[in-house]
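Record 1 of the preview.
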Amino acid sequence: MDPVLKSASRTRLWAVDKVILTYLAFTTALLLGGWREIPGAATLLAIHIAAVALVLIEVKLPNPTTFLFRYWYPLPYVSACYREMAILIPAIRRTSADMWLVSLDYRIWGVHPTVWLERIQSPGLTEFLQTAYTLFVPAVLFVAVALWAQRRYREFQYYALLIALGYLVSYVGYFFVPARGPRFVLKHLQHIPLQGMWLFHSMQNSLDRLESAAYDCFPSGHTELTMLAWWSSRLLGKRVFWVYFGYTLSIIFGTVYLRYHYTVDVLAGALTAIALIVATPYIFRKLQERA
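->
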């Protein structure tokens, strides 16, 4: 068993627990405030209560499932929170920030970036960038899996906190600045459809089925989380770090080239990542080490 779970802090909340429970309190308040407008609000509230209860049971009553649960439960929890935002935002916000973001992009560049990038569009580049974009979640998880395989549990805990913060902060951004992205809003201005070589359409269609109902542009979670994974990959060695650096540049460019994001989304995602890289060591010490 992990020595951390053998210590005196084994029945206390970890930093990632506190962050996730705080986020669930935030979305529970949204549920209660928009009770009449949110479809299936009672079911969502019951899921919230069960999710919180499960965390508290695993923390306060250690059992044979506790070891795996405490390290890995943020993965399904954060994923479920993303799906929930696709329900909460249309029901509560009932608005879109897309035209505001379009306007900001146009003021900065004097053109619509996704339309301008048509001049360098090619099937090979499209296929490459869509593949990189599709591998986003495995790329973020790889660092966690590598740390876990090496039994570097304390660093795993820190990475779990950093990534959970990254995802949950982006969800809050989605709520306050709801936007679907240029692939929907600027579709009528595009002259050439994106064309890949082999798997482009199947990858894009799969992502569309997962994300097309979501208002998940601002900030760019792909930019933010990939930067966090890149920064953390230095724990795995210089070679991995530089591979992630190249991958991160591909993701940042691909978010706009593939028409998923505005450039202001990308900037917001990058700034959020930098803020978390700077702030998370303090947050970890404050919430975790004192436990």
